[in-house]
Fold these 2 entries.
Entry 1:
Amino acid sequence: MSDEVKVISPLAAITFTASVSMLNKFYTDTYGIKLYEPRCCNLFGFDLQYSRLIPNTILKCLEGKNPIVYQFEGQEGARQYLYVGNATYHFILRMDEERTGIENICSKKLWKSSEIIIEILRYFPKMLPQYEESDFVEITEQSMIPNPNFKEFIDFNEGIKRTVDDYRMFMS
């Protein structure tokens, strides 16, 4: 298999999450320590880790290249995305509470790759998405059960705008 073709095991994320949960349970059972375990969906915002959909799309557009929507067997992935400022604000609010257990921090909506790219392209009106078939095998839909008490203070569209603005400033 070439370096360009990568397969992500769906068990990798589950194994990591299970390991963290088991470690937390061990400390709770052994030492009586009550732990809070927030689980976040895909966070986005300005980040120098360029291996993700949102930063890669923005950077391609800033370079004058059309972004690519990869599809596998005619389908594209759908994920929950949350602007990082929402998660940060939520954690700050929780600091004063005696919070224990597991809490999902995620948006309620699933976003397809093409929807995200089209939203980003609102800030790059001369660019068009390019659709390509990919050898990359991925889970078509991936989501968490949203916490009914979680509120997004910065909606997805505003988060994308802020992220594009941050990359523009950084790259200039």
Entry 2:
Amino acid sequence: MPDTPLTVLFVDLPPQLREMIQQELEAGSGVTSLTTEADELERTVERVRPDAVVVPLERGRPLPESRRLLEERARLRVLGVGTRDGHSVLYELCPTRSELGAVKPNEMAAKIRQAISQQVSV
């Protein structure tokens, strides 16, 4: 885990899932989480400058606002939460999608923290 605090921005995730992940993230030291709506995404990213943005996937695809973010901010870590066979799946979104693995909702925070840490330490 890096010494500098990390900021994670959640965009339009289902409230119950988002709250569960936020509680787990914030229980560990050095992580702050914020929420925003998709139509405020670009302004919020500009103002907050998060280390990662977590977005929902609809039918395996990110929201249009998320795709724009990927195109305009290549260094920002964008993670997508989707479902497959009734399980939550976390993806790292790039111009192409990279699966980070199937995870239980209570394990999602640890996976997000791990994904951010790998990016920050490079």
